[in-house]
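Possible regression after last week's pipeline update?

I re-ran a chain I had predicted before the update to compare outputs. Posting the input and the new output here so someone can diff against the archived version. Not blocking, just want to make sure nothing changed silently.
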Amino acid sequence: MNKTYVSTRNHQDQINFYQAIVQGIGDDGGLLVPNFDFQKLDLNKLVQLNYVDLATEVISTFVPEDGKELIHQACLNAYGKGLFPEIVVPVKKAGDVYVAELFHGQTAAFKDMALSLLPHLMTLSLKQLKEDREVMILAATSGDTGKAALEGFKDVEGTCIKVFYPLDGVSAIQQQQMVSQEGKNVKVVGIHGNFDDAQSAVKVAFGDKMLKEVSDQHHVFLSSANSINVGRLIPQIVYYFHSYFELVRNKEIEMGDQVNFCVPSGNFGNCLAGWFAKNMGLPVNKFITASNKNNILTDFFTTGKYDANREFFKTNAPAMDILVSSNLERLVWYMSGKDGDKVKEYMEKLKADGIYEVDDETFARIQDQFKAGYLNEEEVLKTINKLLPVQVNNYMTVKFGQVKLNVKNAKNIPETTVDNKRYIITSSLYSMYDSLYNEQQNKNEVNENIIVDVLNANGINGYARRTGENIKNKLGMKYNAANYEKNLEESYIILNDISIEKAQDIVMQLNEKYFKIQQVPTIPTLANIVVVLGQEKNIDFTIVNGENSAEGMGITEKNFNDIISQGVDCVTMGNHTWGKKDIFKFIDNPKIIRPANYPEGVVGKGYNIYECKGKKIAVINIMGRVDINILTENPFLKVKKIIEKIQNQVDMIFIDFHAEATAEKIALGYFLDGKATAIFGTHTHVQTADEKILPNGTGYITDIGMTGPKYSVIGMDIKASIKRFETTLPERYKIAEGKCIFNGVIFDVDDNTSKVTNIKRIYID
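New output (post-update):
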């Protein structure tokens, strides 16, 4: 088979692998791609190979037939001579997911995985082409590419490298790494602008005729170390195979089982490499592209429209601070049927107008294989804080991301006994996992009679100390007050290795109004109960109505993030959607929807489609018109139109009908019986006891009730509410205080018929 490479824009002569590595980018400004079918690999023959041999087998499928030995030597130099640990990419379990650790290279960046190999691919390509000119590597970086490329090409014969980075657009550590780089052939240049400016300048340089003439005069030619170079992309394919095989070897999955890969992405090269692996036979279901606040990829994978006309944000994840994702061009080329002319048209629109939209057929192919989501800066930090301890005590030690119990000291920690199990009481910020991945420690180091992790956190001005004393006095559980004194503001209470029923019993005995039950170490909120119910009842998909979460009126970004952080899949709204101006910051987040029958042109979405365990679930938010003084479209006609549009795309449809009138809610239930999976009412705040399965299989309840203060007037202070009704004078509403209740409903749905088989109201007092 003749293995050639062409440009995504169709105006590049076919070239071989070595030429593609050296050239870096297409003559026409496009990206070079393999112009041959991906070779399907025999997974059973590869599973026991070490990383060097696996890399050889994978990468050699992209090179001429006689190049396999050259590739093996290059892989050996990159991965087999002490620059990486013996297991180049360890795969660790973290709860219900697995993490491929791509940070064990020289610069602690995942880019090391490719940039440790690219210099060797470059030198062997130069030799194969008998090229005697010096190659000048141009690279743009948003942080980690720069150091990895500099380190990889340092003092490599026949090369020099210049890295451009945005001043104030990389982390302080990354900047120090780059400017302190040793090597006689390296140069670092800081620019005023962002990564897109740097990357665009590099691309322009490749097409600049005057620069080419000057380069020729100096016996130099240009190439790239960014993922626009296919030599950066191909080595990344390897760790997808390796990670899958690690799971097989550790008996976490069986050969042939499909997996999902979630890939943080800015320039899209990493995720695209995984898709290449899938095309080579790796059993992958979906790729989930994760973005930060610069969520242009999320928008593209959701809408098919690539719109770079938006504000650029400098965030705490600078490697993803990108608005022009170069490698997406390669994916569009494949998904458009390798139509280079169409891709060229898209890229010209992007350059001229900052926007393009792929055709329906191309978008359908993309959505079949990719999903996307994003976190803002606050959510990123919250997620990190869940995994990485920022504070430790005398009973814990931290080493390279691992948290280990200091057993010697632990023997002196106050203990208690509950249900014949011994617990350690501590005020550390996190549970004492043997490591962040909950690995088993050496049996000789662990006192197996001790069940680690009992108590931690929710400090409201000394609440932790008071609760600790309460536990000691009422339950006879020993308590170490000194520990709580160190971090009162950030502490919270956790009860692990105990049933929900037992936890509820303890809460009843403690009678603490801020104490909520949960099973994971996060700051408790009412939403946490949803998580607990999900764990106990095997909940697959969770919907929360959040329109009153900000002191009874609207929702803030913090409210939203708190709710989503507890595992909630979708937040619906209602007549108080616009109660807080904060909502305009995140209304485009796919996990929040507002009433669909707001007038055309209103920001946000009235429905969204989610994936859960291989099923596509649509959630529609619709608002009634009876006794709700808001101008909206007819909810009956609007929801019918939406269902007709999406019914062939989804497996299940859930509807939050936010309405005042019971009759209007019931009527909509029968109107959509058999067309929707389930319809639940919100807004009136009082749970109705009319849950039923309608004649054609739709689950229905008029109102799921309220989560909030028990002794209140639908959440509001009793005295203020009575005065308002008594006098008819305007009285400022305020949230009631005291004991809270939790209301909800659980729908059991048949996977085959998508019909509701059972409904259970949830009322926690």
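Follow-up from reviewer: compared with the archived run. Residues 388-468, 475-499, 511-537 have pLDDT under 50 and may be disordered. Marking as no regression found.
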